[in-house]
């Protein structure tokens, strides 16, 4: 991975579980890390993030705030990066939101927001990053989709629609960029130990009346045969490999890391 010393990676949703793990993995290999999230952290929080990633080997660390539900804010973020002389060699489209609800009760605005952040933003970020990648003749795009980009679950209509879209978009962009030194892939995690699933764990705990650990086993084992939550670091390690030189011939794939969920 020594070649990453000269590369810059942009990770969206970098303050969350998987995003934070991916930033750390790339930092440890000497990449310049551009961490994005929608929140405007304090100067102290940014300094802490920068110090943590620099301490493990990042060549450089910067933070970008943008609401990915806004095309204008996405364009403004990439404009700032260009003004600062920061190319995006590796783009990790990780930011996501989720809500579980039957269609009849799903708030329309929230349904559209989930699709906007989980899918439409992937398009806009990819389109912007491809400018740098095509100019250099090298690039990696890694879309953190979901097992729900491959299969469906009840009460997740917006999330399933968006993540299926991400998988399809990944394959299409891989075809458009084939032969240009650019590889485009999706990772499809199953139940992963991140804050996004906390509401489902809490709801299951109330339902069964047991401990949080009991609720996790009860919830996860319904779909994921291994019965355990996936550590974000394991997803990050796959994202790191797909960003490397050895993955140059891997493109257009949707790789499950799901404890056997999609075996059947």
Automatic annotation (TrEMBL):
GO terms for molecular function: 3-hydroxybutyrate dehydrogenase activity. Residues 7-194 form the Ketoreductase domain. Its EC number is 1.1.1.30. Keywords: Oxidoreductase. It is an enzyme of class 1 (oxidoreductase). Signal peptide: none annotated. InterPro entries: KR_dom, NAD(P)-bd_dom_sf, Sc_DH/Rdtase_CS, SDR, SDR_fam. NCBIfam families: PRK12429.1. Belongs to the short-chain dehydrogenases/reductases (SDR) family. This is 3-hydroxybutyrate dehydrogenase. The lineage of its organism: Bacteria, Pseudomonadati, Pseudomonadota, Gammaproteobacteria, Oceanospirillales.
